[in-house]
Amino acid sequence: MVREISAGGVVVRQAGESWEMAVIEPQTENSARPARKTSKKAVLALPKGLVDPGEKPEETALREVREETGLVATTIAKLADIKYVYVRSWGDQQRVFKIVSFYLLRYESGEIDDVSREMRIEVRRALWIPLEEGPRKLSYRGERDVVRRAQQYLKSHSEV
User: Fold this and answer.
1) What pTM was computed for the model?
2) Are 65 and 21 in contact, with CB atoms under 8 Å apart?
């Protein structure tokens, strides 16, 4: 089985008395077509990507956030490693064992969805949503769990 190591982040910023988080809507074959009234709800995910050779997972998380959302962030803490198996829907159709390290990141600068033309192959759009809605709106269970960890961290670390 093929193995992949990735990293990503839960980017947060203060919005008055609450928190917002950055999410992406990945580009899919279906998302390139005009939406119909009967279309499924959008897939929302955390920004993440493969760790490059010589790169540390934390560096990957910051790079992927910048590339996929347009935001510059700093690391607050590591949240979790999630593990899962998927079957590639392209090329060789191989089963892949994937580990993704997720970090809690603080927004520093940048405009959400300021994404390069090259990245539009991967990302349809990036947007802010209320952090409290993350566990309901994210499409993948492991990522919903990571957001719950981010919420717990922020509640127990008022200095953030």
Assistant:
1) 0.91
2) no
